[in-house]
Structure formats: C-alpha cells, structure tokens
C-alpha cells in the first residue's frame, strides 16, 4: 500500500458557501450536536486546553460524527429514518415522498440530492475542522503536560474519529481533499481532491496510529468510545470496500478523473483479509453469541453485548432529537417503524424484492419468486427482522388486509385490518409493501412511544468482520476458510451449512450480508461496491392483502409504481453523490463527480 507521509503534504483548504461553518471550532456543536460542552464564552480556550477534564469534554461532541438512528438530525424526516429507505432493502413510505432521497424521476443532480443527503458534505467537513482544531492544539497544551498518558488516548480517539469521517466521505464522494490542519480566514483557499487511493492510505495509517494507543476494550461506563478493536474494524471495512469492483480500474463506471475512484493496489484482497483477521485475533474465532430463536436474535440489538465492537450509545437522556416526549420517541425505531395500527409511522417499508433474499428454514432459496405462502417456513431472521401479515407483534397479529365489500352493499364483509389503509392510527403511514421493520424494536416497552434505557445504534460488530473475512478470502479462491467464516454467521442464524464454492460462494456471501446486516446501513454501499445495478434501479414490489366475502385471506404481488420513471431508477452518476453545486462552481479546482 502506498505510504502517505503527513509531513510531506501541504495543507489543502476549502473555500465554499459553508466556509463560516469550517472556520470556528465550536460551530460544529451548533449544527447537529446532541452532547453539550461548556460554552466558549464561559471558559477561555487557554483554560480548556489547560485542564485534561475540559479537553476530554471537547472530544465528546466529536462522536456526533458517527452515524445514529437519524440520517440527518436537523431535518424532520431525516431524524426518523436512516439510509435503508434509499437502498434495495426499503422505500420511504409516507405519501411516497420522493424529495427525501430523490431516487425517482430524474434522480440526483448537483442541486438536488434529496433532503436526507443535502447536508452530508458540509457536516462532514465541519467535523473534520473540529478534529483538526483539536489535534493542532493538544500536543502543545498544558493538559498534555498535566496528564500525557490520558491526553495521548484522547488524541488517538480524535484521530480515530477523523479517519472514520473520511471513510464516509470517500464512500459518498470518492477521493476528497485530505486536510490535516484547521482552516483559517487568512488562508488562500485553493482546493483540490486527493485520489481515492491516497485517501484510503491516509485512513489506514491514521487508524493504525490510533489503534497503537487506544485501549483494546472499555469498561461498561465508557461504552461507545473508541477502542483498538474499533479502529481495526473501521480499517477492515475500508480495505474491503477499496478492494471491491467499484474501485477496480478495469471495471470503473467512470471514464474521466478516474483517480478519484480507482484503487490499483495489487495486494488489495490480501490486505482486506489481513485487516479482518487482525480483528478476529482480538475478538476470537468463535465469538458469536449463539441464539435459539428469533427472539434471542432480536435481543442482540437491544442492549450492549460482547459482539458489538463500536456503537453509538443511547440512554434515558440521549436521543437523536430532544430529551423526551413526542420528538424523542418517534426518532427511535419503535414509533418510527411500527405499523400504523400500533400508532407507528412505518417510515421505511421493506420491499418485497428484498424480503425474497431470506431463505426457507431448510436453507433453500426463494429464487427471487414470491412463495405461495410467503410467511411460512422462512429462515429465523425473517421473523426477527420483519413485520408481515399475521406476525405476532405487541400482543396481536398484524393485519394489513382490506376486506371485500358484500354484494350490493357499501360495507366491508369483515373489519378492515387494523394496520391497513382503512385501519387505526394515521393511515397515511400504512405500509404499501405489506412489510414493516421489526429489527431494533424493543417489544418490552408498554407502547411504541416508550423509551428504551440503553439501546445502542450498532456501527461495527463481530458478524460483519467474519463476513468481511469470508469475502476477502473468497475473492482469493480460498474457499474452504471462506466457507468456515460464512457458516459461523449463517449457522448462528440456524441455517444449514453452505457447501458451494467459486462464484456461487461469492453470491452466498453477498446474500448473507444482505440478510444478516439488514437495516444497519450496509446495503446502500454494498450493492454499489458490487456494481449490482439490478439492486440499485429496480421495480419496487409489494404485497396487497385482502379478505374476501367468505373470510378467505389472499394476497396479490404488485408494482408500487406502474410508471417505470416513478420507480427506483438508476444512473451511473449515482454511484456517488455530487459535490454540492455552490462548492464546485465557486472553486473551479474542486472537480465535480462523474456525470454531474
């Protein structure tokens, strides 16, 4: 891998419409913060960097740069959904709004990427500014003299967080400027993008440096803070993504400025293998918590456990929005994702297309065809992750079905389903696909607007690392060991061993990632890095359920959008978001992404 030497690089700066947000260190805390620190007008900068406790307090808000339940914390809808609704997994449900992700009609443009993506660029650079500001001051601070060991760990945390931000920048935008010093008003703002390969090299070196200092584990009271294991997990995902087809110079969808997207490192799959193995060497080869049923599996996502490598903690006083009541409750998955008949908003409706990825319990696949009895005999994770017609949920069976009307009458033969478009609650939130998300829901709560005391948003976990390892191995034709680690995940889900090899094994790994990691923010990027356009632009399908006048229940498979231009469309430019229009036009050296 190309060595990236920070000391040889000249600082690069940004001149954008959002430059004011980048100038002041504390600006970031007014944008999308959840944790507050002492206001700057009450504590001078000298005092802050002179006291190790105050320095630690500066680090806490930087953790807001990690993902959480909200894809965008300062947007009404973005507070209540994540990226699953822009992936193969699901669609945004309420009124079929397109302005949330802008993935229908003409798709993304440099002036419109949908509300949820609109501020990604500016927010990430704001956090880069705050981390750079911290790192520019900590070494020469009195706090470093006062407690050098603790200060070095805090410094490593911030380097970890900065590297993690860069992993997100390059996933969304390709190669970006590598900035290691805070921007100042007096700077001459000349701005160019570094190559994708240089960005990956920078991220890896930063993570290696952080991992050398961070503790391997943290006590329970510090759940959610960076560790050596977390740093190595971020490295594993980064190198796996870099090795994938999306960045293969011979497969690039882009034809200009290819250095912004390509990764030509010959040892790329071996590097990805070694990075995953480094994490496995810490967590163990048989670390997965075993489960007996769907409920046990569901519980893995409701509280801290040994399989979580890095997560964003949520406690009784810490939500995406507010500190209680309506705003807090519906920013968490219970109310945001429950069916409408439970008072839920059902905002991310899983697509029928995605649900067909779940096997039968004997390990056979659906073959992409809707089974005659779609909810019978499916694999355990189908029942753990999905709400569907007839599922037992919060004390009753879910019912999406509308009843036929009696001949010659205007009344239904039977009551419409409580979760149907004629049911309870706000029926505009009734699922249009015949599915809702069950994963992450705490059914021990008395109501969907309750608050769990300690439910995490999981960012990295052991099962992903095993699958990263399996994929890197399979790409090197090391099928035996790849199957071993694939089966560790699949068998924990009570599926029979997978025995295939070659291309079939690679496809089995992809299916396992879709199912095991569903709704955790992976699929949006996985389908892109695999160049799987069938799962990027597709006819969104669902099931309509009805009860006939004899009381018989049946379903119809249907396309949600009969006009193909209103379905999930695909353009090659959408492998990446565009650089925001103002930034790319004000600074000509800031190359716009391909196709925009």
UniProtKB/TrEMBL annotation:
Domain RagB/SusD per the UniProt entry, residue ranges: 309-596
Keyword Membrane found: yes
Compartments (UniProt record): Cell outer membrane
This protein's record includes keyword Iron: no
InterPro entries, per database record: SusD-like_N, SusD_RagB_dom, TPR-like_helical_dom_sf
Entries under Pfam families matching the protein: SusD-like_3, SusD_RagB
Residue stretches making up the SusD-like N-terminal domain: 115-239
UniProt record similarity statement: Belongs to the SusD family.
Name this polypeptide is given: RagB/SusD family nutrient uptake outer membrane protein
Species: Postechiella marina
């Amino acid at each position: 891998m190309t060595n990236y030497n920070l000391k040889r690089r000249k600082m690069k700066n940004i001149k954008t419409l959002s430059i004011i947000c980048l100038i002041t260190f504390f600006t970031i805390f007014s944008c999308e913060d959840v944790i507050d620190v002492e206001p700057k007008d009450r504590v001078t900068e000298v005092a802050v960097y002179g006291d190790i406790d105050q320095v630690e307090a500066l680090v806490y808000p930087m953790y807001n740069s990690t993902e959480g339940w909200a894809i965008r914390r300062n947007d009404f809808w973005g507070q209540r959904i994540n990226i699953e609704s822009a992936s193969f997994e699901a669609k945004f449900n309420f009124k079929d709004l397109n302005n949330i992700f802008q993935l229908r009609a003409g798709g993304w443009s440099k002036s419109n990427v949908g509300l949820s993506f609109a501020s990604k660029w500016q927010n990430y650079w704001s956090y880069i500014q705050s981390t750079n500001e911290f790192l520019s001051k900590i070494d020469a601070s009195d706090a470093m003299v006062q407690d050098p060991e603790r200060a070095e760990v805090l410094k490593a945390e911030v380097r970890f967080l900065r590297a993690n931000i860069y992993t997100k920048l390059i996933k969304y935008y390709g190669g970006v400027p590598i900035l290691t010093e805070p921007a100042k008003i007096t700077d001459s703002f000349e701005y160019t993008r570094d190559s994708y390969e240089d960005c990956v090299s920078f991220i890896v070196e930063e993570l290696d440096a952080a991992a050398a200092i961070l503790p391997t584990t943290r006590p329970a009271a510090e759940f959610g803070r960076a560790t050596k294991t977390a740093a190595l997990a971020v490295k594993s995902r980064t190198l796996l993504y870099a090795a994938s087809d999306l960045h293969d110079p011979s497969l690039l969808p882009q034809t200009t400025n290819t250095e912004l997207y390509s990764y030509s490192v010959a040892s790329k799959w071996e590097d990805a293998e070694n990075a995953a193995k480094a994490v496995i060497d810490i967590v163990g080869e048989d670390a997965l918590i075993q489960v007996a049923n769907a409920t046990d599996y569901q519980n893995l996502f409701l509280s801290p456990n040994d399989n979580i490598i890095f997560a964003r903690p949520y406690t009784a006083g810490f939500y995406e929005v507010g500190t209680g009541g309506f705003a807090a409750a519906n920013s968490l998955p219970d109310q945001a994702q429950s069916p409408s008949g439970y008072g839920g908003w059902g905002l991310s409706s899983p697509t029928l297309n995605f649900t067909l990825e779940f096997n039968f319990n004997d390990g056979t696949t659906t073959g992409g065809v809707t089974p005659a009895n779609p909810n019978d005999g499916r694999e355990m994770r189908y029942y753990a992750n999905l709400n569907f017609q007839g599922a037992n949920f919060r004390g009753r069976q879910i019912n999406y079905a509308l009843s036929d009307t009696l001949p010659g009458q205007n009344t239904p033969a039977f009551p419409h389903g409580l979760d149907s478009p004629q049911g309870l609650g706000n029926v505009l939130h009734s699922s249009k696909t015949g599915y809702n998300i069950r994963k992450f829901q705490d059914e021990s709560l008395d109501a969907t607007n309750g608050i769990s005391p300690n439910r995490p948003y999981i960012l990295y976990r052991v099962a992903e690392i095993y699958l990263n390892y399996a994929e890197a191995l399979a790409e090197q034709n090391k099928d035996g060991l790849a199957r071993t680690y694939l089966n560790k995940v699949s068998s924990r889900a009570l599926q029979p061993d997978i025995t295939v090899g070659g291309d079939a094994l690679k496809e089995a790994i992809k299916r396992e990632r879709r199912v095991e990691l569903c709704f955790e923010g992976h699929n949006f990027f996985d389908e892109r890095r695999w160049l799987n356009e069938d799962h990027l632009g597709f006819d969104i399908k669902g099931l309509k359920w009805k009860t006939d006048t004899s009381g018989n229940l049946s379903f119809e498979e249907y396309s949600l959008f009969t006009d193909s231009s209103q379905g999930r469309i695909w353009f090659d430019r959408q492998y990446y978001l565009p650089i925001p229009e103002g930034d790319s036009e004000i600074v000509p050296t800031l190359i716009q992404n391909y196709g925009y």
